Amino acid sequence: MSRLDDTWADKPGWWGFVTTVDHKRIAARYIVTVVAMLFLAGMLALDMRLQLSVANGTRMGPQLYDESFSLHGSTMLFLVSVPVMEAMGIWLVPLMLGARNLAFPRLSAFSYWLYLGGVLMLWIPHALGITPDLGWFEYPPLSGPGYAPGHRVDIWAQMITFTEVAALAASVNVVATILKMRPPGMTLARMPFFLWAMLIASLMTIFALPAVMLVTSMLIADRLVSTQFFTPAGGGDVLLFQHLFWFFGHPEVYIIFVPAVGFVSAIVEAFSRRPLFGHIAMVLSLLSISVLAFGLWVHHMFAVGLPRLGNDFYTAASMAIALPAGMQIFCWIATIWSGRPRFATPMLWVIGFIATFVIGGLSGIMVASAPLDLQLTDTYFVVAHFHYVLVGGAIFPLFGAFCYWYPKATGRLMSERWGIVAFVLIVGGFNLGFFPMHILGLEGMPRRVYTYGPEMGWDGLNLLATLGSAVSVLGGLVLVANALVSYWRGTPAGPDPWGGPTLEWAAPSPPPPYNFEHTPVVTGIAPLWEHDDLPVMTGLNDEAREVLVTSVVDAVPIYRQHSSGPSVWPLISAVAVSAMFVGSIFTAWAVIWGMLPIAIGLILWFWPVRGRATSGPLRTRAR
Amino acid sequence: MTAPRASRRVGDLSGLPESASGPRHLVWWGNIGFMLIEGTGFLLAAGVYLYLARQTPRWPPAGDMLPGLLWSGIFTVGLLASDIPNVWLLRRSHAKDVWAVRYGTALMTILGIALAVARWFELQHLGVRWDHDAYGSALWLLMVLHTTHVITDLGDTAVLSVWLFTHQVGDDQFADVGDNANYWSFVVLAWLPIYLLVYWVPRWM
């Protein structure tokens, strides 16, 4: 054991901190950063709700309000929702595979540092008074060079580049790990549902995110080197931006939602104490969601005047995706119904998720209809809908996942009592805050207005929405406080406090740097429920970092792969990439000259350490 | 359950090799992942070009010159020809031939430099600047995307070659040479639809 510790432990102190490639440490810093972002975005939301709680509110002027909702939306979508799902994958995938690390350890470190670059890219300029103010999707012509001078738009666009490169790096890592590093016996047919969800979400990321990187780069080019992509006078087209943005933007909703489906399934399975009902049907429904999600983007553009036939097609496609999503809900209910359910905190979050997400799904079917959408678009009905889908559909399962895997990550149990308090406050406050927005939207209250007159009669419901939001934020603080206090004072959890079915529960809590002493062998879909003891294979090297590589379909062992050790080069490369991204806001030459330090960083990152040549023209010669 | 779970040894992995080649190797899959990302980028950029082409009655717009065929032809023929030694290098990397991977990567570096020079002249004969109109912007978008890939793989091949000449070559480095060769084939294949789009679609429209 001590040899394994020596091999896999990081160096102590700050050097270990900046060089670590331990997927658990990287995921932990991802999650801590996400929680900080969630807090800031929540404070912005509360501030906006205070402004809207009374007619003719004077807390904010239009500019500050524009900045607030732009910062809130951009932070929640790009710096919270997508990264936190990547982070959960980075933490959980190797543990659920019984593996010692991810496929490309240094790539995961690079991914975090670039994500942090995105955070700083948005929030440091904000601290200096330069805040994007055109919403979370900055449509031209408003964001073009003619209407948006200065650098607010560039900051937003480059923040996206940072976070998307980070997410792509994480996704390639997760896909390669799931396909090539499954333990012996874990054929694709025996792969836990959560891993299917992470595999599918990561593949969707690979196909969706290039669209937003391309479109924001085109926007920056229009602003910096006068290309004419979105300038009608030069033959460009403003709707092209919307097509590319939503070709990414709609799948992104599912990139956030699909891992959440994985969390819910893992929790439902563990707390119903039976394997997931309809496992194959669930996997197939996820696959169909992932395909359909790429054919829906135009439903975000019903109001821009596209041909009728196009609108009809996208209405039908949008309604079709309700079928696989609905089937999943029935499978979860069937699992709970036919199992022996235990309603601990993680399971409560699942119940909160199902109730809230179904409401969001139903309002989704309403706005999927092009004629109805024309009435409802840009009203508070849409604000209510997407908060029900994103908060109810992704953040509630995330909180459930947090409570479920917290003992594994920390070795301590969270307080159940305070867990229930947080759940009631958050779910109750959320519904109190956001349900009235449906009615406000139907009454015609537009989104993105900083105030309204008393004659509109919207103040009562707005006050209710503000109260609900405040209760929800209070619940969030209770959740975080519970996590912090439990970290030091929680009851020791042991390796498997919930009796979970998947391999991570066979590792110690918290897992050591190498995760597992030996490689687990899997004989069924719920491996820990198959045997009282764990079948394992020995033989991975204790004295060098090694991981097992297996075949894609049947997980037959192929070879032992050397796994990269700690390195400072991912950080230095990320700094070089950041310098290029920031510089490219100001001059196109930064893209050319910025490549040089990036190339040096990457060369030193990948430089293999082996002896000097003893053959060939450049061999070392004995003196 | 609070007690650690007992384990039962059912096999041993110490006899497994320490490397593999082709799709059996882990890094091959990472390489495919990045090709998928960049391939999607190419497809979307081609979509941008075709979308903008549909927005105007004439493509290229009246007054714009068509892109020149001489240097682009030289580049295209050269690029296709370069894949012959590239595929040979891929096969020799599977055969773990030290001499071949050293001199093969050196040859590919020289070919890459020659192609970069041809590309430089090709860019001088596109007939329109990126800021002239949307046609110019879309044309340059495709060219810049592809040129970035040519330069990136050239840099990678050059560094790999220097390393191979100065170090003892292990199994993982043969796999690296194979992945690098695959990537070059991707750069070659990606060029063909872009070439048709940039040079021939405006002539046929």
Oligomeric state as shown: heterodimer
User: Share of helix among residues of chain B?
Assistant: over 70%
The CATH homologous superfamily of chain B is termed Cytochrome c oxidase, subunit III, four-helix bundle
The CATH architecture classification of chain A is Up-down Bundle
Q: Kindly estimate the percentage of residues of chain B that lie in beta strands according to DSSP.
A: under 5%
Strand content of chain A: under 5%
Largest sheet of chain B: none
Count of DSSP E strands of chain A? Answer: 4
Q: Structural class, from secondary structure content of chain A?
A: mainly alpha
CA distance, first residue to last residue of chain B: 71 Å
Q: Measured on Cα atoms, how large is the radius of gyration of chain B?
A: 22 Å
Instruction: Give the largest interface pair and sizes.
Output: A-B, 85 and 67 residues
Which second-level CATH architecture of chain B applies?
A: Up-down Bundle
Task: Supply database-style keywords.
heterodimer; A: 623 residues; mainly alpha; Cytochrome C Oxidase, Chain A; 4 strands; 63% helix; 3% strand; globular; B: 205 residues; Four Helix Bundle (Hemerythrin (Met), subunit A); 5 helices
Walk me through this protein's architecture.
The complex is a heterodimer of chains A (623) and B (205). By secondary structure, chain A is mainly alpha-helical. Helices cover 63% and strands 3% of the residues of chain A. Chain A contains 19 helices and four strands. Chain A has a two-stranded antiparallel sheet. In chain A, strands 3-4 form a two-stranded antiparallel sheet. Chain A starts with a helix and ends in a 17-residue tail after the last helix. The mean pLDDT of chain A is 95. Chain B is mostly helical and 205 residues long. Chain B is 73% helix and 3% strand. Chain B is built from five helices and one strand; from the N terminus they run E-H-H-H-H-H. The radius of gyration of chain B is 22 Å and the shape is elongated. The model of chain B has no long low-confidence stretch (mean pLDDT 96). Strand 2 of chain A pairs parallel with strand 1 (7-12) of chain B.
